[in-house]
Give the backbone structure.
Amino acid sequence: MCATTLTDENGRGFIIPIGGGEDRVKEMQIHSKFVELSGGADAYIVVIPTASMLSETGEDYNRIFSSLGAGKVEYLPITRRLDCDNPTFFEMLDRATGIFITGGNQLRLSAILGGTLLVTKIRRQNAAGVPVAGTSAGASIMSEHMVAGGQGNESPAEGTVTLAPGIGLTNAVIIDQHFTQRNRLGRLLTASSFNPFLIGLGIDEDTAAFIGPDNVLEVVGSGTVTVVDASKLTHSSMWDAKPGEALSLIGLRLDVLGEGCRYDLKARVGYPPPQFLGLSSGSDTDT
Amino acid sequence: MCATTLTDENGRGFIIPIGGGEDRVKEMQIHSKFVELSGGADAYIVVIPTASMLSETGEDYNRIFSSLGAGKVEYLPITRRLDCDNPTFFEMLDRATGIFITGGNQLRLSAILGGTLLVTKIRRQNAAGVPVAGTSAGASIMSEHMVAGGQGNESPAEGTVTLAPGIGLTNAVIIDQHFTQRNRLGRLLTASSFNPFLIGLGIDEDTAAFIGPDNVLEVVGSGTVTVVDASKLTHSSMWDAKPGEALSLIGLRLDVLGEGCRYDLKARVGYPPPQFLGLSSGSDTDT
């Protein structure tokens, strides 16, 4: 993990978007690291299963995080906006040392949670140092500008992506999940190119970006995080393209980051895993 | 089209990889431009339908190119290596002013044509100024290093792509087709990163790259050509990744080029369509 951790009391907590489909039965590497960041045996993890229609989702995560050694796990059974006024839930979030948002439908999440005091609590806790993780829809909703929907398998074009406001834990990135599996490069390029200040994060299944308080992310999991930096575009046809017409985007930077790679969201620079930065002897074995 | 055309007698002919699934019934923009480059009413177009198992493919293209005003169109009924020794076919290729390679299976193409005098004839004709177009499998086979197969829907990883020798009209690029439609970014990134001198061209369906004698390509069609330049990679885990492990590739350049965009394969620079290079007044209309 990055050098800065939850013990840095001046920093916000980690923001941990996960690309969905993460390993929940074998090594559970991503969930393990989240539990560790949340305090391990001292952790009190609160799960928000609202994106899912499945009543068992909350219980599932209780079982997973408990099996990984989390001290205490509870979920908030929020299925409608009125639930977001429940003072018991506020009190639970105030005590949380880790918050986890499950997958499902991100518009369900934003439509039910958006503008409520509950979201304010989540933001305040994250700002105070509590890590917030989310998978699939729960990953998308973390940023200020959220990919709400759109088509995979398409070249970049204005109509391929729909944006909506997310819960705004960060405004540095816009997140897409199930990235390679659902062929979402076109819609992420479109989303990033609407306003190139946004860095696009395309997160594969069973893969997570652990975004530290220093805005350096580290990749954990079996797939990759594709980082799209559109800020150096020398040409974009965004404002000129006809509806449905394929966009031209010249000058994109792309980093494909596997396990252990890092990316500095402020400097917009990717780094290999630490072992490639030192003077390693390497291997000259023929293969 | 680019300024340099077939009338430049010092140059080779255009190389025109097409991403498959091109419009054959409406405007037939790509085929029209190929017929025009081949000489229009004076054209003698020779079609190589070998990649396809369908006996009617050759006849189909005869009909299409004739309907677009080509003077004469014939196809070579090559289905096995022995057919490649037929002197009648050599004579037809010697007179050709345009050569078209159909889609199908590129390994069928390379296994039947590879190493025969027929391929030498195609190369010599292209070097002498004759445009050669190919669609789908016929596009892949044009380059020295050919994408022979592999998986779509995958992150870059060594096992996701199989290379084989193509017919070598160019060694500047490696070509993949049905690009967005079949989610082939991962395998093209892998292919380009094996040896980053290769520029990866990911060509969408109904889209073509008209590569001129000056090695500047121009995009024609309804989709995009994605240009991958791996030459500025600051880190690649290619030599170190375990089998099946997702690759890390830091420092990729990516251009997504729609209709009218150009790319200079020597300078590795993309350009917008000409109207964006002049002092156009633009439109300030609110939308």
About this structure: DSSP finds seven helices and 16 strands in chain B. Residues 15-264 of chain B form a domain with the Rossmann fold fold (CATH 3.40.50.880). Residues 1-9, 279-283 of chain B have pLDDT under 50 and may be disordered. The two ends of chain B are 31 Å apart (CA to CA).
